[in-house]
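Thread amino acids onto this structure.
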């Protein structure tokens, strides 16, 4: 068996262990060492570059699909997790869990939201990184519920069931708009989507424009924090920004409930 000398370490390498290089061949040990010491590739906003499928986006879609099937098959599943402003004070988990539910009898409801999530989710997951992306999604979902709480009247809107990922999706729309502008890319497509969906929220019955607005504001705020954070403070901002947004959402909710006489 013929051996070729590794261009890095000078040791012989058999044909099965040779890795082509710019000049000659490298052995597998040198290739592995080079991979460990090479600087990690990062996106324009500091997230590690990941190859392969957008696992977080796929997981979010999967959770919504499973929840939809449970809504269709398990009695009272929706009522236990859906958001109603009147119930939110005593059962605060509803602020988040409602974002994974959809109208059981309307297939287009979940289909539209999942298509929209797939449109922008993978880009944000790659650009921001998984941790910032999932935080953005979850807080935007809560922001949608808080928007519905704060902007609905206490006489009728507080007794309306709310479900759907649209608040979270609008948060992604707001974030991707800010990120695209920060990176100097064309954002007209996202602006068009926001305008169209904003109009639909006022003219189509059964759509909560309040939840859309709440998610949009939260998503844009977090997106701006992530996109414009100084390079040396990105990790700090990635922690502090969600904490600040969470405190604001909790404060707004407590204030609304207090003004309505909830204790």
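Threaded sequence (263 positions):
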């Amino acid at each position: 068996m013929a051996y070729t000398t590794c261009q890095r370490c000078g040791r012989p390498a058999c044909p099965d262990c040779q890795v082509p290089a710019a000049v000659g061949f490298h052995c597998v040990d040198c290739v592995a060492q080079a991979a460990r010491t090479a600087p990690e590739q990062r996106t324009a906003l500091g997230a590690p570059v990941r190859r392969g499928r957008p696992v977080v986006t796929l997981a979010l879609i999967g959770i919504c699909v499973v929840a939809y099937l449970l809504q269709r098959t398990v009695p009272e599943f929706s009522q236990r997790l859906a958001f109603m402003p009147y119930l939110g004070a005593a059962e605060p988990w509803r602020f988040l869990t409602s974002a994974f539910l959809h109208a059981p009898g309307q297939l287009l409801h979940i289909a539209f939201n999942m298509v929209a999530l797939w449109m922008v989710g993978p880009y944000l997951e790659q650009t921001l990184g998984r941790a910032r992306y999932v935080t953005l999604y979850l807080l935007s979902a809560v922001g949608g519920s808080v928007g519905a709480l704060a902007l609905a009247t206490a006489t009728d809107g507080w007794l309306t069931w709310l479900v759907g990922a649209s608040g979270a999706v609008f948060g992604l729309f707001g974030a991707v708009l800010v990120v695209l502008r920060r990176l100097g890319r064309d954002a007209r497509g996202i602006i068009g989507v926001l305008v169209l969906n904003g109009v639909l929220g006022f003219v189509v019955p059964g759509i909560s424009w309040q939840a859309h607005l709440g998610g949009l504001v939260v998503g844009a705020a977090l997106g701006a924090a992530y996109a414009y954070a100084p390079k040396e403070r990105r990790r700090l901002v990635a922690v502090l920004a969600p904490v600040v947004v969470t405190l604001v959402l909790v404060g707004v909710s407590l204030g609304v409930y207090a003004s309505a006489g909830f204790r």
